[in-house]
Design brief:
Elements: H1 2-54, E1 57-60, E2 63-67, H2 71-77, H3 80-100, H4 103-113, H5 118-130, H6 133-143, H7 151-158, H8 173-197, H9 202-210, H10 215-243, H11 247-252, H12 264-273, H13 278-308
Antiparallel strand pairs: 1-2
């Protein structure tokens, strides 16, 4: 018994010493990040956990009333508006690939080849990213105004062409919103591609030039292969961002016409603040988050692969 007590005292003493050493070594660092940890727990993790919890309850306004399991998820998935939003999100993703994937690549290659006025053209490329997203959306709403006073319709009238409905046309709404998104966001992506191009060995370009190769040959055999890793990463990031699209359709079309441009995040917003069905809203958000998580896993794998190469 005596030996056991002595061993216990020694163990407690060694633990205390280890704790003191840890406190001296890592204590200041933990004190520095403690405020950010507390803020993160209060404003990120706690709402996240509460949101997931709420998705399993029947709600009255913002109050959880009764546990109903997966009923909110079943109701959301069977809702025609959610199905429409899911189909719209797929369309957003496809059109963002068609209209927005290669625009930054082309701009980055052009910026890399420019000799005079590099600073101006780089600023001009990045300038749309400086503007607040809602301001960009409102600006394009004015451009796409279906009346005779709309900028694009006015230009068409000068050319003797009839006015178009633009955002009021269900067949064009998603494509026009993607154009808006591309204009507002391609600059930051182009700068990333440009930074990647700065690491290309110029001797390779000179070797191709000596062999009689032109610009297309350089693009095919050097530029595009070098950028392929970055293109894959930003492609996945683009899909992730499309699943989070919110203020563009909300500001430009309100999700219309006839839900032709409504997004998943807008469905969650409508459940929460229009019909006051927080259970369905959080269920929609959780489903959206799960889809984003899948793409995020692919993104991390591609990023890890590129870093190891």
């Amino acid at each position: 018994m005596k030996n056991y007590n002595e061993a216990s005292k020694i163990k407690k003493k060694s633990f205390a010493q280890a704790f003191v050493l840890w406190l001296k070594k890592d204590g200041p660092a933990w004190l520095m990040i403690a405020p950010f940890l507390i803020i993160g727990i209060m404003f990120i993790f706690e709402p996240l956990i509460m949101g997931i919890r709420t998705s399993f309850f029947e709600t009255r306004g913002f109050e959880c009333v009764e546990f109903i399991g997966l009923d909110n998820y079943k109701n959301v998935i069977s809702d025609s508006v959610f199905v429409k939003a899911m189909m719209n999100t797929i369309k957003y993703a496809l059109w963002s690939i068609v209209l927005g994937l290669f625009v930054p690549v082309i701009v980055a290659v052009a910026l890399n080849e420019i000799i005079h006025g590099k600073g101006f053209f780089r600023f001009a490329t990045y300038f749309p990213c400086i503007l607040p997203g809602v301001v960009t959306a409102v600006m394009w709403v004015i451009m796409f105004d279906p009346g005779d006073g709309g900028v694009l319709n006015y230009v068409r009238s000068l050319m003797g062409l009839p006015a178009m409905q633009w955002l009021n046309d269900p067949g064009m709404t998603i494509q026009l919103i993607v154009v808006t998104m591309t204009w507002g966001g391609f600059g930051s992506t182009a700068i990333l591609y440009l930074a990647d191009l700065q690491s290309v060995n110029t001797d390779l370009y000179e070797a191709i030039s000596l062999d009689g190769g032109g610009v297309l040959t350089k693009l095919r055999h050097i530029t595009i292969p070098h950028m392929s890793g970055m293109i894959k990463m930003l492609f996945i990031m683009q899909i992730i961002n499309v699943f989070q699209i919110f203020y563009q359709p909300l500001t430009m079309t309100g999700g219309g016409p006839n839900n032709a441009s409504i997004s998943l995040t807008q469905v969650a917003y409508n459940y929460a603040f229009k019909t006051m069905e927080m259970g369905k809203s959080t269920a929609t958000s959780v489903l959206t988050a799960l889809m984003i998580m899948i793409f995020s896993i692919f993104y991390m794998k591609i990023k890890s692969k590129n870093m190891n190469e």
